[in-house]
């Protein structure tokens, strides 16, 4: 009796299903897609940037497990967070995903004086780099408008300016920061980062509700290690419009752009 040949279409469908399942597992366990919804990390990240977060960067945790079904507590396999990393983390109260730059490690003292960052009483050098400019218009699906140091600026066509600096952290990491003007968080008291917690700030220093602000007023405060989701290393895609389908708003110069 002749053997029944497998149905070619059926085998193809099975192969596709298996491939999608494997891709879903890899996405769930190792990478998380993230759209940039706000301007708090300009000029490093723009509204409408799309990236994948490496969920294994700091180990495998309950935040990496689908449906919170992780069979263990704590983390395994990953490396320690490094000052200057761009990190996605869960807000300690709302559990909403945030993305900021790590500037303070456990035990560090952090302070802002005159808009300059001090880590363990040593100023992080700032080098003027001119201006960061953008069009003042509604940005992204949420339709937010940028803040400008040269206000008032006309909406839908005016050039919005911010001072651009290069900041150097104690471990040599260099990155851009923006200054809009005098802000409440330009001069702060001393923050002492507790054990197993981290201190985060946005690169757009005057437009970021970060660890400088207590959770009671919408900030994130100190972020515990277990709330870290992963590290962002590269922009994959970028669109300046309300939808990624609006191809005329794509920023091709930011596709696969490495992050500093």
Task: Walk me through what this model shows.
The protein has 1 helix and 15 strands. The protein has one helix at 8-30; strands spanning 31-35, 49-54, 86-90, 97-104, 109-113, 116-119, 122-123, 126-135, 159-168, 174-179, 191-192, 197-201, 223-224, 228-238, 257-258. The strands form 3 sheets. Strands 1, 2, 3, 4, 12, 13, 14 and 15 form an 8-stranded antiparallel β-sheet that branches. 9% of the residues lie in helices and 32% in strands. The protein is mainly beta. It has a single domain (11-258), classed as Umud Fragment, subunit A (Ribbon).
What's this, in brief?
The protein has 260 residues and is mainly beta. It has one helix at residues 8-30, and strands spanning 31-35, 49-54, 86-90, 97-104, 109-113, 116-119, 122-123, 126-135, 159-168, 174-179, 191-192, 197-201, 223-224, 228-238, 257-258. The protein is globular.
Shape: globular
CATH topology, by name, is Umud Fragment, subunit A
Strand content: 25-35%
Structural class by sheet pairing and helices: mainly beta
CATH architecture: Ribbon
Number of helices: 1
């Amino acid at each position: 009796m002749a053997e029944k040949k497998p149905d070619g279409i059926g085998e193809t469908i099975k192969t596709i299903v298996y491939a999608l399942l494997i891709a879903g597992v890899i996405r769930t366990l190792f990478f998380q897609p993230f759209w940039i919804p706000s301007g708090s990390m300009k000029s490093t990240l723009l509204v409408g940037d799309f990236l994948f977060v490496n969920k294994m960067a700091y180990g495998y945790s309950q935040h990496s497990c689908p449906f919170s079904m992780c069979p263990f507590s704590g983390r395994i396999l990953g490396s320690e967070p490094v000052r200057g990393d761009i990190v996605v983390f869960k807000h300690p109260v709302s559990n909403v995903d945030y993305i900021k730059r790590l500037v303070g490690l456990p035990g560090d003292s952090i302070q802002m004086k005159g808009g300059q960052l001090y880590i363990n009483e040593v100023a992080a050098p700032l080098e003027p780099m001119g201006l960061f400019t953008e069009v003042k218009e509604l940005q992204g699906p949420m339709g937010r408008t940028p803040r400008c140091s040269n206000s008032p600026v006309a909406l839908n066509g005016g050039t919005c300016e911010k001072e651009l600096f290069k900041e150097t952290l104690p471990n040599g990491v260099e990155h851009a920061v923006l200054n809009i003007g005098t802000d409440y968080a330009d001069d702060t008291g001393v923050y002492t980062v507790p054990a197993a917690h981290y201190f985060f700030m946005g690169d757009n220093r005057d437009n970021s509700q970060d660890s400088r602000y207590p959770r009671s007023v919408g900030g994130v405060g100190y972020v515990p290690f277990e709330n870290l989701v992963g590290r962002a290393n590269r922009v994959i895609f970028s669109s300046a419009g309300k939808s990624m389908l609006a191809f005329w708003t794509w920023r091709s110069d930011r596709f696969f752009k490495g992050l500093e």
